[in-house]
Amino acid sequence: MGGGTSITNSLFFSSLLLLLSLFQLLHSQNGVVYAQEKIASSEEEALGIFQQRETLEIIIGGGGSPSPAPAPSPPEYTPCPPPPKPPSRLEKARKVLLNFTNYIVDPKGFTNNWCSQTFNTCDFNGIRCATYPISNEPAVAGLDLNQAGIYGRNNKPLSLSGILDRIPELTFFHVNSNNFSSSVPKEIVSYGFFYELDLSNNKLCGQFPMETLQNNNLVFLDLRFNQLTGPIPSKLFDIHLDVIFINNNRFNQYLPENFGNTIARYLTFANNQLCGPIPRSIGKAANTLTEVLFLGNNFDGCLPYEIGNLKKAVVFDVSKNHLTGPIPYSFGCLRQIQFLNLANNKFYGAVPENVCKLPGLIKNGNLTLSNNYFTAVGPECWKLIRSKVLDLTNNCVPGLPKQRSHKECWEFLHSVKPCPNEKYLLSYSPCAGHWNKESEDTEEVAAAPPVTYNALKPHRLRL
Ligand SMILES: *[C@@H]1O[C@H](CO)[C@@H](O)[C@H](O)[C@H]1NC(C)=O
Ligand SMILES: *[C@@H]1O[C@H](CO)[C@@H](O)[C@H](O)[C@H]1NC(C)=O
Ligand SMILES: *[C@@H]1O[C@H](CO)[C@@H](O)[C@H](O)[C@H]1NC(C)=O
Question: Global pTM?
C-alpha cells in the first residue's frame, strides 16, 4: 500500500477539496468544514470520507468534478445507488395543489389542510384518491371544492389553469359556487378517465367551452349559473353525455337540428335566451330523455308532435316562452309524464282528454297550463282541475273561474295564426293502439322522482 496510496490520496484530496469548496459555495454548512479538518489524520478515515464524498456528490447532483482513481480494496463496496425516482403521480399532484393555494383566497378555510404538514396528499380536504389503472399507483382521482367560495388573490381572476390542467388522473372535478372565471383548459381533452365536470355557479363567460366536448369519456357536464353566451354547439348532442345542465346562462340562438341525437336523460336549458322552434328531432331521444327543462327562454312556434314519442319523459317544462298552437294530440303518449308545464305561453284550443287520462298525472302529477289561451276542457280534464292537478288559471275556458277577459280572449283568438301542420297535430298519435293494453300497464316501473328542478337553484345537485 505505500507510495501508490499517497498518490491516490493526494489525487483524492485535491478532488475532495474542489468538491468541498463547491459544496461550501452552495451550502456553507459547518458539518462539511468539520469533515475537512479530519481529512489528514488517517487513511481509513480518508476512505470513510470518500464514502461521504459520494453522498455529497449525489446531494449536489455531482459528477462534474474530476474523478479520483478508485481507492484500492475499499473495506466495504458501496454499490452505485439507483438514479433518483421520478416524482410519483401523487407527488406531482401534491405540488399542483400546494401551488394552487398560493393564488387563492379561501374564505371558508376549505383548503386549510392543503399544506406541507399534511403528510398524505389523499388527506387534503376535498381530494379523492384512487388507483390509477394505467400504472397501478395511487393518484388524485377527484377534486371536490363545491361551495368553497374561493376567489383569486390580489384581485386577480381565479383561473382553472394551474389546477384543472395539471392533474391528468382526474375522473371528476366539482367546483360549484366558486369564482373561477377563465376558459376551460384544453388539457382535459386528453384525460383518459375524466367523466364529470361541474363548473356551475362560477363566473365563466364567453362562448360555450368547446374543450369540454372533446373528451369522449365525459358523461356529466354542469355549466349552470355562469355567464356563457352565444349558440349551443351541435357537438353537445353528438357525444355521450348523460346529463347536460346549462341553465341560467345567456345562451341564445336556435337549438341545433341534431338536438335529438342526444342520449342524455337530463337536460336543463332553462333560463337562457334560446329562441326559434323546438327541433322536431327531439323525438329521436325517445329511449333516453327523461327530464327536459326549457322554461324561461324565447322559444317560439308550435310544439312538434314528435315530443309525443318521449315515452321515458317524466318532466317536460316549456313554461315562460313564446310558444303557440294546440297541445299536440300525441302528448297522450307521454306514458311516464308526471310534471307537464306549458304555463305562460300562447297555447290555445282544447286540452286533449287523452292527456288528462295519463296515469302519471292523475297520481299526484302536475299539469300546469296557466296563462295561455285554452278554450275548452272535457270531463277527464275537469276531474284533474277538481283534484288540483291541472291549473288552468288565466285562460279562456268558459265557466271556469279566474279566466282572461272576453276581450283579451277574442283579440288573441282572432289574430292567431294556425300552425303549419295543425290538423296533423290534432290527430296524430305515435302510440295509438299500443300501450293502452293492460299488459303494458303492469310492466311499468315506477318512475324516479324528478331531479332536475333542483338544478334551478345554484347549488350542487346530487343525482
Ligand atoms: C403555480 O400556479 C400558477 C398559477 O396557476 C402557474 O402559473 C404556475 O405555473 C404554477 N407553478 C407550478 C410550479 O406548477
Ligand atoms: C369574482 O369574479 C368576478 C369576475 O371575474 C369579479 O368581478 C369579482 O370581483 C370576483 N370576486 C372576488 C371576491 O374576487
Ligand atoms: C305544479 O307546478 C307548479 C309549477 O312548478 C307549481 O307552482 C305548483 O305549486 C305545482 N302544483 C302542485 C299541486 O304541486
Answer: 0.79
